[in-house]
UniProtKB/TrEMBL annotation:
Keyword DNA-binding part of the UniProt annotation: no
Organism of derivation: Salinibacillus kushneri
Keywords, ordered alphabetically: Membrane, Transmembrane, Transmembrane helix
Taxonomic superkingdom: Bacteria
Segments traversing the membrane: 17-38, 50-69, 115-137, 149-169, 181-201, 216-236
The protein, known as: ABC-2 type transport system permease protein
Keyword Mitochondrion in annotation: no
Length: 249
């Protein structure tokens, strides 16, 4: 089953060569923005009525964009409502459902496609951040050691596994309109969570995570990955159930 799912996911990945390239380049650009902030934060402080908003903005950039790295977010359905409303992913699944392929293989292939995308875009994004931080280490490594930075990345990766595992379900288990508007719903939820964090803790989410990384160390990274794996597995099973009960004809 796994072999068939990997073959199917790899074949489709090759067919999406252009969106992969554009998404890869966009991930590098986002990495440049965050890496530049970490290396020289004074250049990226945004003020409103003399109040620094940098932690709030960085939370939005890092957490707000996190689910995107498990999708080809530079593909047409994500960029154009007109493209999304024609349900391209649902139509593709209708074709796949007409083939003699088990539902478990189809669902697993969607999850593997997501993981392939996540690994590729994370290399572009995190690789760019790491390159800038290592090239200009004076400020950043006064805040976190190299080990703590690595643990922070693991925590971030586990979060994407948890949230990003939802993307195959949205793409193939819902419809194009839901796919197009879900990022706006996610940002709205994140905005409310941000306000709550600042009300109760007077800190950004990433600031709190950084403190936990410093105090607890690698166990919080391991916990994040475990939660991510469980979340990814759960979304895969929900997608398989959805494929068995949704009419794609």
């Amino acid at each position: 089953m796994v072999k068939d799912a990997v073959w199917l996911a790899a074949k489709e990945y090759k067919q999406h060569f252009i969106p992969v390239i554009f998404t890869f380049l966009a991930s590098i650009v986002l990495g440049l923005i965050i890496g530049s902030y970490l290396a020289k934060p004074d250049h990226f402080i945004i003020k409103f009525n003399a109040t620094p908003l940098t932690p709030f903005v960085i939370d939005f950039i890092l957490i707000g964009t996190a689910p995107a790295f498990s999708t080809l977010f530079m593909s047409k359905p994500y960029l154009s409502y007109n493209s999304a409303k024609h349900n391209p992913y649902v139509k593709r699944m209708a074709v796949l459902r007409s083939l003699p392929i088990r539902l478990s293989v189809l669902a697993l292939s969607r999850t593997i496609f997501m993981l392939m995308t996540l690994l590729t875009m994370s290399i572009a994004y995190l690789g760019t951040i790491a390159f800038i931080v290592i090239t200009f280490p004076d400020h950043f490594f006064q805040l976190l050691t190299a080990g703590e930075f690595f643990t922070f990345i693991i925590v971030w990766f586990g979060f994407i596994l948890t949230i990003g595992g939802m993307n195959p379900y949205i793409e193939y288990g819902t419809n194009g309109k839901t796919l197009h508007f879900m990022p706006f719903i996610y940002i709205g939820i994140l905005f409310m969570v941000e306000i709550m964090f600042y009300q109760f803790f007077n800190q950004g989410i990433l600031e709190i995570i950084s403190e936990l990384v410093e105090k607890i160390g690698w166990p919080i990274g391991a916990l994040s990955i475990i939660i991510g794996i469980i979340g990814c597995y759960g979304w895969n099973k929900l997608l398989e159930y959805r494929l068995a009960n949704k009419d794609y004809m």
